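Lecture notes, part 5. Sequence design as translation. It can be helpful to think of inverse folding as translation between two languages: the language of shapes and the language of residues. The source text, in structure tokens, appears below.
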């Protein structure tokens, strides 16, 4: 005998504000009238599992910030992290027309961690990593790296690194080939470059900290440029094709895992009880 399943009442649903918003983005699931053994079952629990997974995926998407820049505003919190990637592939040309030879790409990362934020002020710890492998031709060092801000900022240096001993606002001279860099971290006398042995060597990292103050609205920080100097020559280029994404925090990753478990439970249940 077939039996109809009544639509779950609101009291049977998981009615958190986030889930109510998530439900609006999901198609309605079909009602199941009969399962193996003649047992009729409500599907509200399955909807809940699907909504949990959708919520987790939505939060992951929300924390995967826009490419090329990130914004400091009222939603920014302490310990938020933002990552900029820099990459020049072997055989590619930099922004000044120089072609990278050898066998190893030039790659680096710039990780921003929010230490304090409030009003129109933010303090970052910034970790710069030279992730390039050593080429047979020799070392490739990062001698300077910079970024843009909108609006203009006032810089206050908290601590300098062991390699990047200077953090400078509106550096002059700027990186070669770039008319202007708003904030530059450099290892030599200026942002334009210098002795490669003073720079950040292959597979090394360095950390600095500074405060940025601004006036009016949110602060946008966009990747600027990086300078490598080494045995293969000097290369200056902008961020890679997929820069500037927000790193998911542990709580978000945990929620994502819970959502995947919910989806797995739905699949198992359908296989077990579907006629």
């Amino acid at each position: 005998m077939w039996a109809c399943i009544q639509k779950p009442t609101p009291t049977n649903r998981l009615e958190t504000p986030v889930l109510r918003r998530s439900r609006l983005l999901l198609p309605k699931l079909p009602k199941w009238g009969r399962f193996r053994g003649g047992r009729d079952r409500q599907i509200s629990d399955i909807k809940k599992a699907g909504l949990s997974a959708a919520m987790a995926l939505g939060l992951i998407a929300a924390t995967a910030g826009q490419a090329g820049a990130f914004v400091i505003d009222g939603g920014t919190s302490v310990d938020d992290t933002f990552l900029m990637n820099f990459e020049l592939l072997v055989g590619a040309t930099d922004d000044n027309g120089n072609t990278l030879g050898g066998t190893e790409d030039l790659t680096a990362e710039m990780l921003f961690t929010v230490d304090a934020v409030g009003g129109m002020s933010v303090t970052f710890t910034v970790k710069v990593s030279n992730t390039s492998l050593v080429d047979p031709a020799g070392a490739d060092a990062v001698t300077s790296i910079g970024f843009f801000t909108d609006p203009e900022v006032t810089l206050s240096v908290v601590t300098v690194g062991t390699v990047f001993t200077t953090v400078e606002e509106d550096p002059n001279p700027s990186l070669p080939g770039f008319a202007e860099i708003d904030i530059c971290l450099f290892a030599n006398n200026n942002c334009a470059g210098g002795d490669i042995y003073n720079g950040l060597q292959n597979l090394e990292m360095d950390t600095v900290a500074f405060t940025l103050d601004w006036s009016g609205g949110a602060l946008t920080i966009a990747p600027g440029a990086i300078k490598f100097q080494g045995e293969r020559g000097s290369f200056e280029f902008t961020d890679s094709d997929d820069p500037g994404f927000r790193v998911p925090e542990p709580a978000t990753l945990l929620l994502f895992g819970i959502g995947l478990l919910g989806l797995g439970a739905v699949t198992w249940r359908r296989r077990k009880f579907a006629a």
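The translated text above is only one of many valid answers, since several sequences can fold into similar shapes. Residues 13-64+250-273 form one domain.
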